[in-house]
Amino acid sequence: MTIEDFGARVASVWEGLRPSTRSLVERALLVTQTPSGAFVATPSRAATTYDARSEWELSRLLAALDERAAETGTVILDADQSRELVRLAETCAAVLNQQARSAEVFAQLLERALHARDYTRVDTLADALDSRLAPSETCELARHINPSVRAIAREALLQIPTSVLVSLLSDPVDSEVARDALEHQAVEYGSEEARWIVNALNQADAADEDL
User: Fold this and answer.
1) Is residue 60 a contact partner of residue 130, using CB atoms and an 8 Å limit?
2) Which of 112, 65, 59, 64 is nearest to 86 (CA)?
3) What is the pLDDT of residues 136-152, one digit of tens each?
4) Chain centroid to CA 49: how far?
5) Is the pLDDT of residue 37 over 50?
6) Of the chain's two ends, which shows fewer C-beta atoms within 10 Å, N or C?
7) In degrees rounded to 5, what are phi and psi of residue 16?
C-alpha cells in the first residue's frame, strides 16, 4: 500500500513534508503500534525538540487524513486502506500530542478528541496547556469558535499566576480574556491579589465613565 492509495490531497501533503518531518512520522509508525493496533504517545528524543514548521506540516497532514476518512462522495477505501488511514492519522496525532506548542494545533487536537469522545485524551491535552502554551496562545484558544475548546482554555487560564494575567491587561487583543480570568480567580479561587486588581480595574472604569 502506498500513500497515493489515500487520495491526491493526502499524497500531495505527504510529498510536501520535509524529510525530517516525514522521518518523524515513519519512526512513530514503527514504535507506537501496539499488538491491538492502537497507538499511544511514546516519548522519544525527537519529540522533545520543538520544530514549529514540523508542527505545521503534521497539522496539515492530520487535517488531510481526517478529511479523507470523512469523505463519502469519492472513491471508497477498502477495509485494509481504511485501517491504514486510521493508523497513519492516529500516529500523526500522537506525535502532535507530544510536541504541539500553538493554539491552532491544540484546538485541532482538542476538537478531534472531543468529536471522538476520547475524554482521556481531552484531559491529557487540557493538562498540557499550562506547560506547553504561552499565555497569549492560551488566550487565543480561549477565543476559539468551539465553546468546548474555549471552556478548556479558560479553565487553564485560571491556573496561570495572577501576575502573568496582569501583564496581559496591556495587550489590546488579550486584555478582555485576561480580565475575565482575573475575575474568576477572585470569585472562584478567593485570590486576594486578583480581587484587588479587579477592584482597581472597576474603579478605573467608573472614573472613565465620569469624565
Assistant:
1) no
2) 65
3) 999 999 999 999 999 99
4) 17
5) no
6) C
7) -85, -5
pTM score, two decimals?
0.86
**Cell representation of residue 148:** 468546548
d(CA 171, CA 149): 22
Domain ranges of the chain: 1-99
> CA 204, CA 198: separation in Å to the nearest integer?
10
What is the structure's pLDDT at 92? 95
Q: What are the pLDDT digits (tens) for 43-95?
A: 444 445 788 999 999 999 999 999 988 886 667 788 888 889 999 999 999 99
**By the 8 A CB rule, do 146 and 107 touch?**
yes
Give the rounded percent of residues in the chain with a pLDDT score beyond 90.
Answer: 73
Q: Cβ contacts of residue 190 below 8 Å, gap of 6+?
A: none
